[in-house]
Amino acid sequence: MKKFTKEHEWISLEGDVATIGITDHASHELGDITFVELPNIGDQASSGEVLTVVESVKAASDVFSPVSGTICEINQELENNPALVNESPEEEGWICKVKDVDSSELDDLMEESEYRAYVEAL
Amino acid sequence: MENLKMTPLHDKHVSLGAKMVPFGGWDMPVQYNGGILAEHHHTRKAVSLFDTCHMGEFIIRGKNASQELDKIFPRAVADQKIGFARYNFLLSDRGTVMDDLLIYRMGEEEFMIVVNAGTIESDATRIRSLLPSSILFVDESDKTGKLDLQGPKTVEIMEKIGFKKADLPGVYKWIKTTVKGIPAIVSRTGYTGELGFEFYVAADNVGELWDYLLSFPEVKPAGLGARDTLRLEVGYPLYGHEMDENTTPGEAGFDPILKLDKRLSSFMCEKILKDPTKKTKKLIGVVLEGRRAARAGSKVLSTDGKEIGTVTSGMFSPILEKAIALTFVHPQYNFVPGDKINLEIGGKPFPGEVAEMPFYKAGTVKMGIV
């Protein structure tokens, strides 16, 4: 199950583990990404709170966690190659994984088609 | 939303896929399709074309114009030769910077002053107020188109246009010429730290010149985003960041080029600029260990955590692949390159070192071309 937020994060849930990243639209809007702050494994993510920071040449942008849980994996590849978020934002450019996720937290998020329509209307 | 001005090239930027942003009251391209990093690297190794039509151009003419301008500007004007351009500063009554600009000596008593876009009106008012009414002042900004061609391979393009190397103007010199039949003033100036030329033409002709220069496959358009990373990487100040009406040219690090002790005649705010006790801050460059940038307004911290200054510009350096920053620190600190220093990002200190300027040292700006 893959869902989207109004703040342009995507979340993909398998069992109780969610993979989180920023959307294709967000990466395009930010431009060249030069830095991704990787959260610490074991830290708590809280729904609606700042999860991490993504920087482009021009600005820093907060990434919000769509769900609550425990950070269980980070995309180490981004440490030296943050441009991967531009190249493949919704696949190889994932940022982190969060475990112990309550799937009902995804209920209010947007489906892909809804999100694409939301972006179109911006 | 405010009414943004558009340069004559606006439609061309849009059709090239540029992302347009407001800058100094203008709707300008911040980047084209390839992105800021690609434009930055292309400028460092090949040739980029920038639309700088938003900048202002004033003509000053009349008997004793050179003497009158000499009284206003902190760098001497009277001894400037025809055919040369010189970087200079427009001062407030407190000796602080109202704008940084270029003064071209066009004739014995004729000058062109090139100013930043956001300050055209305030500069015009200020300069008019300081000049006697016998001196003609004309704001030619709307009638003038300006393009910057920048990068180490610019000379190859100039040769393809038809210039002989020996006829190209030297560093900070200008020539009157034609480019593909278009009358132009071409100067060896720019703001990227690379070899390059700026073209001043009639606004009506700038679209044709833009298309012609972009017809060379080596030349790619670059936006204000790359212009900003390029200038910061070579430590050039940007008005509104490293200089403003709270900053004197000396505080921004320009005492070495002002050579105030060698001025032959007196000028506005001379006492203030010559008084070292009036300096309240000092500009230094910082290279951080990591990629995360401290942005303008971030705190500068000593290694023991004391707040000692403020970041004026900060971003990721595409060439160094580290974050860099220009900062103002209190003048009591005598930093030398290599000294440890921290910049605060998101409430946390990030380690770095005081840098020897410029951050990027291999720029071709002064390279000989003959």
Features of this protein?
heterodimer, A: 122 residues, alpha+beta, OB fold (Dihydrolipoamide Acetyltransferase, E2P), 6-stranded antiparallel sheet, 3-stranded antiparallel sheet, 4 helices, B: 370 residues, Elongation Factor Tu (Ef-tu), domain 3, 6-stranded mixed sheet, 9 helices, 19 strands, 19% helix
Molecular structure report:
The complex is a heterodimer of chains A (122) and B (370). Helices cover 20% and strands 35% of the residues of chain A. By secondary structure, chain A is α+β, with helices and mostly antiparallel strands. In chain A, the strands form two sheets. Chain A has a six-stranded antiparallel sheet with strand order 1-2-3-9-8-5. Chain A has a three-stranded antiparallel sheet with strand order 4-6-7. In chain A, strand 2 (9-14) and strand 3 form a beta hairpin. Chain A is globular, with a radius of gyration of 13 Å. Chain B is α+β, with helices and mostly antiparallel strands and 370 residues long. Chain B is built from nine helices and 19 strands. In chain B, helix 2 (36-45) packs across helix 7. The longest helix of chain B is centred in the middle third of the chain and has 11 residues, at 120-130. Chain B is globular. The model of chain B has no long low-confidence stretch (mean pLDDT 96). Chain A binds chain B through residues 31-32, 34-35, 37, 53, 55, 57-60, 82-83, 86, and chain B through 19, 30-31, 35-38, 225, 229, 290-293, 295, 315-316, 318, 323, 346.
